[in-house]
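Deviations from the work plan: none for this task. Representative record:
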Amino acid sequence: MKNENIIQYIYGIADNALILGQRLSELCGHGPSLETDIALTNMALDLLGQTRSYYQYAAQLMADGKTEDDIAFLRIEREYKNVLLVEQPNKHFGYVITRQFFYDVFHLLLLQELQNSKDEILSAVAKKAIKEVSYHQRFSSDWVKRLGDGTKESHQKVQDAVDDLWKFTDELFHMTQDDMLAVESEIGVDISLLKEKYYQRINKVLEEATLTTPETKWFQKGGKQGIHSEHMGYLLSDLQYMQRTYPNMEW
Amino acid sequence: MTIEFEQHIDPRLIPVLEKVHDPEIPVLSIMDMGVVRSAKIVDTIAQIQITPTYSGCPAMDVIGEDIITAFAKENITAKVSLVLSPAWTTDWITPRGRAALEKYGIAAPLDEQADKEALLGNKKIVKCPQCNSTNTKMVSQFGSTACKALFQCEDCLEPFDYFKCLK
């Protein structure tokens, strides 16, 4: 597998962490309570930390002087390979939790396989991240249950979020060319095999939360090919603002 | 970013490393925290490898700089690099480190099974570092830093941090 393809494969994983981390960071100081505010931003920090490890490795593979910052801040929208799910905006707390829950369950399944990668660095990053993401999954699952099985209003809000975000879940298992190459060379994960387990876990929590699993069979994808929803441009203009305004600035 | 499988620490470097503390938990030296994975002298340069507690731990950059400063005071040049594997676990906190945590007001991590029971709220086993009561409850799974959860003692009513088990 060429370095070029490994880099794309890394983006397919790392960009999810970056963009979801950015979304969660937007909530810093705006969480519904102090504890949830701190929890969400702690999770953002974990995700950004993981992103850095992946991007540092990608920069090393590029070997052309580019750094993790170039990768995070100076790509154009089409070059980001995150799924549509993670770029969806923070409409309300129930929406944030549902988005997180849908991603965490996938994220943990992915990392549990990625730790067996033949690529030593990807395996090491995965092993580290599993410990963090286990906490994320526990947190978001608990909140889905609390809100779903909570008041009439919280139940309705979370059910609406589930119905709205459901269409983005199938893309998590979409295999790109680079995914297939990575599986062939045993450095990547065959994500299509995670699908059944994913929906089992999701359904189990939804059931406990007294929520209804949507029946819709229509799914939207595009993010993994770089074709994003309208929200992505706004997110990136916020994320990239400093680097674009003051090129080459450093801490 | 590299991978290192064994811990090699040159005993001559330990006294300097013990002077470097976690900026967020100042009572804990980086040796007691178990984040130093290797330390050796190569051509008069002290080469130190550290491993992050959490991927996004902002203390790591500061720790790296503090190591360089601590060695500079002894007129030794130090180089610090980050290793990811094997991943840090709370088991690497030394007994002295655990005692320092408790004295500072942070409950030390329980073992994996007990930790799970405590964080799920099944059992009251986390001991209040102020009054030693186990009549405590979890307020939030995430505390002031990624590595801690927030608890409150229901006897003395003091809130306190619990260092989460990481395995």
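The mean pLDDT of chain A is 96.
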